[in-house]
Amino acid sequence: MSKIIRITENAYDRLDQLALETGSSKQRIIDQALENLARKHFLEKTNKGFAALKNNATKWDEELNERDEWETINDGLEDN
Questions:
Q1: DSSP state of 76
Q2: How many C-beta atoms surround the C-beta of residue 32 within 10 A?
Q3: Is the pLDDT of residue 39 over 90?
Q4: Single pTM value for the model
């Protein structure tokens, strides 16, 4: 399904130039840009959550202990 959205003239010119330079369709370029932005946003949220965890000494100790438990569980298992 197609939808129509308005973009600035500058954005359209950049999109047009990218399409010419890469040989990709404008739709594909937009899809890739949105995917990259979504990944960036996910990593930023993850980093913020991880930073908050590290700033809480009790929760951070729990995290480290859980990691140690997982390492213990994995000891002796062969890699396939």
A1: T
A2: 13
A3: yes
A4: 0.71
